[in-house]
Amino acid sequence: MNPLVGVLQVGPLETPPELLLVLLALVVAIIVARFVLALAKKVIIIGLIIVGTLWVLAELGFQFGVF
What is the mean pLDDT of residues 28-43? Predict the structure, then answer.
């Protein structure tokens, strides 16, 4: 048996359309992940600003019932 036969067989991704579909799915997953991470980053920054503002105002003597 030729040793290259095992290298060339990649399981279910033997035809170009199957490989193309897998690569397309990978691109979609990366784009969705980038969108979700960008959204999460904005939510965390907004939360930091709100908590920081409430903390500074509490230190200045304003009462909000939060801290």
Answer: 95
